[in-house]
Design goal:
205 residues; mainly beta; 5-stranded mixed sheet; 9% helix; globular; OxRdtase_Mopterin-bd_sf
């Protein structure tokens, strides 16, 4: 049974593709996904190694904090919790910071990153993630708003304390759960001073 549409959301047939700093050029040969911070066994994966671990496939909606949702996206990737456990997190680790090739960052609680549905996605709708959607990899946590699904992922960094990422600096919520409508910190958020690119895509990826 599918989950109902979260409060305040509507289904759209088209993606709005945002990039805070523009699309980076990722060299796949040198790209690595690093697991770092408060871990006893830091390590990194090549794209080929990540693909080999990407055995999870499911269909879930994507929910943007700006209230549009895309219905029934097929996601495929590696369980994020398994990847984090491989690094042996230290007991004081409570937050995960996603770091991306363009300099974008966003934090999520460790418990959300470790949830059963959380993955590092490498495919959408049966195809490698398109460049504008974050190729070669992006985290996907279905119960969090889309800005937490950081595109062009390069590092998963475990932290003891919360730190703001890009959107959190401007008042977006620390956690971002969709069914609790955790869109912003309180009822106000700072006026965004930096331009953010957003374009409509084709109807489906």
């Amino acid at each position: 049974m599918r989950n109902p549409l979260p409060p305040g959301q509507f289904y759209s047939k088209k993606w709005v593709l945002y990039s805070a700093f523009g699309e980076p050029n990722v060299d796949l040969a040198s790209w690595r996904l690093r697991f770092s911070g408060l871990v006893d066994k830091p390590y990194s994966l090549t794209y080929g190694e990540l693909l080999a671990l990407s055995k999870t496939k499911y269909v879930r909606d994507f929910h943007c904090v700006t209230k549009w949702s895309i219905k029934d996206v097929e996601w495929e990737g590696a369980p994020l919790g398994d990847l984090i456990r491989r690094a042996s997190p230290r007991p004081q680790a409570e937050w995960v910071l996603f770091v991306c090739a363009d300099g974008y960052t966003t934090p999520v609680p460790l418990e959300d990153a470790m949830s059963n549905d959380s993955i590092v996605a490498v495919k959408m709708n049966g195809n490698p993630i398109p460049k504008e959607q974050g190729f070669p990899a992006r985290p996907f946590i279905p119960h969090l708003y889309g800005w937490k699904s950081a595109k062009w992922l390069t590092e998963v960094r475990l932290l003891e304390e919360y730190v703001d990422g890009y959107w959190e600096m401007y008042g977006y919520h620390e956690r971002g759960r969709v069914y609790e409508e955790e869109r912003y910190k309180g009822n106000e958020w700072k006026k965004i001073k930096k331009g953010v690119r957003g374009t409509l895509s084709a109807e489906r990826v």
